[in-house]
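Quick start: read one record
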Amino acid sequence: SVQFTTDVKQIALGNCILEVSISPIDAVKISNDSNMAFLDADKIQEPLTWRYWQAGDRFYPLGMSTQKNVSDLLTDAKVPLHEKEQQGVLLSGDAIVWVIGQRVDNRYRITAETKKVLLLTRN
């Protein structure tokens, strides 16, 4: 795993690179690209931790008010076993904020009250 703060521009884990930026909400063009996560920067606790998912990991998928196991999300998304082993998750404190390339956590989504956006892009 690797820990970082939002003032870094890029961070790597294995052969995957995340680009990190914070922008005012009115400067961000929201996209539904699965390689991008748009999070409410004011709800994020630093440092962030990027690691491979582990059995028992749970989060609140975007649009849901109940928790889901990351393993169930990956199974539902038909992620092949060899890719599952390399599935990354991003944590703020102990909470998963993004199952990278899959879903953001509903609690950290962009809302009408969001002022600053933490944008993460997987390359």
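The first strand starts at residue 2 and ends at 4.
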